Amino acid sequence: PNQLTVLGIESSCDDTSAAVVRWRKETGGEILSNVVSGQTELHAAFGGVVPEIAARAHAEKLDLMVEAALRDARVTLKELDAIAVTAGPGLIGGVLSGVMCAKGLAAGAGLPLVGVNHLAGHALTPRLTDGLGFPYLMLLVSGGHCQFLIVESPDRFHRLGGTIDDAPGEAFDKTARLLGLEQPGGPEVEQAAVAGNSKRFPFPRPLLDRPGCDMSFSGLKTALLRARDACIKREQGLREQDRADLCASFQAAVADVLAEKSRRALAAYLALNPPVPMMAVAGGVAANNLIRARLEAVCTEQGTGFVAPPLALCTDNAGMIAWAGIERFRRGETDDLTLSARPRWPL
Ligand code: KG4
Ligand code: ZN
Predict the structure, then answer these.
(1) Ligand 2 mean position to 170 CA, how many Å?
(2) Residue 45: its H or E element
(3) Mapping DSSP to helix (H, G, I), strand (E, B) and coil, where does residue 146 land?
(4) What is the phi-psi region of residue 146: left when phi exceeds 0, alpha when psi lies from -120 to 50, beta otherwise?
(5) Binding site residues, as ranges?
(6) Which ligand is nearest to the CA of 194?
(7) Ligand nearest to the CA of 171
(8) Which of 118, 143, 204, 301 yields a CA-CA distance of 20 to 30 A from 25?
(9) What residue stretches are annotated with the Gcp-like domain (predicted)?
(10) pLDDT digits (tens, 9 = 90+) for 34-90
């Protein structure tokens, strides 16, 4: 076909989202609509996403999101070519809600169903936003994920390494919690770090002494906790400047680790002699200005292009799922109504 219009559905964590994306042979992908409804307030009191609450909220919101996505795109169900849905990995209740919704729509409208791996959705986004060709290097850094992938085709991802414990976003969120800042912690910590001294606390840079691209961020949290308690003990409370210095020192440690491991991942990728060397980022942590700048510097130093899609497409959204669905569908890959939801689904 010369043109495809696909509805995407995403509900694997705490965002309920639906989107319509159109692909044209001459012009590539175009997002016609992409609506996202978050659940931050629902989980705020619990200090983390509660799976049961998330699943119920998805089930309540999905129909409305699909309706809004179709309306915004000025597209009817009949004009769609397929329905794409996140089939995992993620919180199983949420994934199931999305898969059930997609199956109902596909069966009702007689449309093909395309199950999408959520991580593939993130990893393929730079092809939608910047038309990247294969292979490119991807760093996926979010609240739940942290890995380097060489993206070779819509369904071939070579994993170079990743976190062996926490994801960086999770570390930002925990840091914020330890310092009495709001959730999600990333933007709060970044903001507080502006006025801070990043050299005051020599936090660890785990695994830098070991070869390879694996990372670790859980030790950082323990170091931060100790430094915080030392400040509190010394001054009978946490002063504004201490908080800023802790945030700046923490952020610098995360940025150092990501930059150095990116340098190594880039070397492994460049050894493949890619025709157009490109590195892209995805995930909420890609919003961080220091981290973004450090990664871009590593790329520039190695003669590699650097792509950071707009933030709304870096974080969880159904636009990336619709796009990944288009990529699969164009290769003739579809699923039937036996498609199952998978809590774990490595690329
Ligand atoms: O991709 P995302 O929206 O959701 C998933 O985790 O799948 O990423 C959210 C994560 C949160 O942990 C949040 O604290 C982090 O991204 N984040 C940031 C920034 N903005 C969001 N981390 C560091 N700096 C930021 N500016
Ligand atoms: Zn995600």
Answers:
(1) 13
(2) none
(3) strand
(4) beta
(5) 118, 122, 140-144, 173, 186, 190, 288, 316
(6) 1
(7) 1
(8) 118
(9) 30-323
(10) 999 998 888 888 877 888 888 899 899 999 999 999 999 999 999 999 999 999 999
Which single residue is written with the structure tokens 């990372």?
Answer: 215
Short-list 308, 321, 281, CA closest to 17: 321
- Whether 201 is in a domain gets the answer yes
Structure token pair of residue 150: 């060489």
**Looking at the structure, do residues 81 and 178 belong to the same domain, yes or no?**
no
Residues 133-165: tens digit of each pLDDT:
999 999 999 998 999 999 999 999 999 999 999
- 89: enclosing H helix or E strand: none
Q: Are 49 and 141 members of one domain? A: no
Q: Which two tokens stand for residue 96?
A: 């199931």
49 in the same domain as 115: yes
Question: Which of 95, 194, 285, 311 for a ligand 1 pocket mutation test, highest count of atoms within 8 Å of Cβ?
Answer: 285
User: Domain count of the chain?
Assistant: 2
pTM: 0.94
Residues 116, 182, single domain; the answer is no
Q: Which parts of the chain register pLDDT below 50?
A: none
Q: Does 95 reside within a domain?
A: yes
What is the domain range of residue 120?
3-130+316-330
What residue ranges line ligand 1, CB within 6 angstroms?
A: 13, 142-144, 169-170, 172-173, 184-187, 190, 283-285, 287-288, 315-316
**Which ligand minimizes its atom distance to the CA of 141?**
1
Residue 142 Cα to ligand 2 midpoint, Å, equals 7
Q: Is 7 in the same domain as 115?
A: yes
CA torsion through residues 73, 75, 77, 82, sign: negative
How far from chain centre, in Å, is Cα 137? 15
Give the annotated binding-site residues for Fe cation: 118, 122, 316
Residues 161 and 112 in one domain: no
User: ipTM of this model?
Assistant: 0.98
CATH code for the domain of 299: 3.30.420.40
